[in-house]
Design brief:
binds adenosine-5'-triphosphate; alpha+beta; binds magnesium ion
Length: about 120
């Protein structure tokens, strides 16, 4: 049970972030979107890129409101995305994607109480 428009917002932000992270790099640029069943009746959707990677020393700030490394960024994308994940009883986290790039994991329960 989920709000389609909100999940679309989350996935669009993750995909655009991945594309932004790769846009100045040469070589193979790969954006991978995978979904899989996780433990405890959870669903994980992951968005991986082969971009510049999470900002060094600031990886734990990327979910903060107004944190951005882009000239035209609002820095609200991940903050809002994490709020949406949590309001569905899920979570959103970021890890490095060796050898380069980042992966964002969105985990959601299969079913929750019906949304008002
Ligand atoms: N896939 C990624 N690879 C590397 N860094 C990332 C990635 N996704 C997010 N970030 C970092 O996290 C910051 C915050 O991302 P967020 O989506 O919240 O805002 P934004 O993309 O900068 O702005 P907006 O979403 O408003 O366009 C980015 O500016 C960037 O530094
Ligand atoms: Mg963004």
């Amino acid at each position: 049970m989920a709000d389609r428009v909100q999940l679309q917002q989350v996935l669009m932000n993750l995909m655009i972030n991945g594309i932004d992270a790769m846009k100045d790099l040469d070589g193979t640029r790969q954006l991978a979107i995978k979904s899989q069943r996780a433990e405890n009746d959870q669903l994980t959707v992951s968005v991986s890129d082969t971009g510049v990677g999470l900002p060094a020393q600031q990886a734990d700030q990327i979910f903060d409101a107004f944190f951005t490394t882009k000239v035209d960024g609002t820095g609200m994308g991940l903050r809002i995305s994490r709020s949406i994940a949590e309001s569905h009883g899920g979570r959103l986290r970021a890890v490095d994607n060796p050898p380069r790039g980042a992966t964002f994991h969105l985990t959601l329960p299969f079913k929750t109480e019906a949304h008002p």
